[in-house]
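Tokens for chain A. Residues wanted.
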């Protein structure tokens, strides 16, 4: 059966499903920044038993970008971003976020200062 615009029930459902699919895809692209790498976005570094969960996290940014990352840790310690000399305390079972302009080019260690454990590597490239 067709409505006043000449569309059958199946056609209306197909149009509705297509519209929903477009909205979902657009949302996923926007929320992920359109890419799935850790370049220029924000990421989470997870620390379990004073070690980086899954290995040393690679963080890559372009010079001038806003560097953003969060450390979630089951171990209390001071997080130190070498080269930029940024330090923040993370409580046991807590998290701490960093956000700063990537103004210095190079490769920098991010570590649990007291445990002397590297948890991430920050690359800032031209």
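Reply:
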């Amino acid at each position: 059966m067709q409505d006043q615009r000449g569309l059958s029930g199946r056609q209306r459902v197909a149009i509705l499903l297509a519209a929903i699919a477009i909205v979902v895809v657009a949302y996923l692209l926007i929320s992920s920044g359109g890419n799935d790498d850790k370049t220029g976005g924000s990421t989470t570094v997870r620390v379990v038993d004073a070690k980086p969960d899954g290995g040393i996290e690679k963080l890559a940014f372009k010079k001038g970008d806003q560097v953003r990352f969060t450390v979630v840790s089951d171990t209390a310690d001071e997080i130190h971003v070498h080269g930029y000399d940024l330090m923040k305390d993370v409580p046991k079972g807590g998290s701490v976020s960093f956000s700063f302009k990537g103004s210095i080019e190079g490769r920098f260690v991010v570590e649990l200062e007291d445990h002397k454990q590297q948890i991430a590597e920050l690359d800032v490239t031209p």
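The radius of gyration is 22 Å. Residues 31-40 have pLDDT under 50 and may be disordered.
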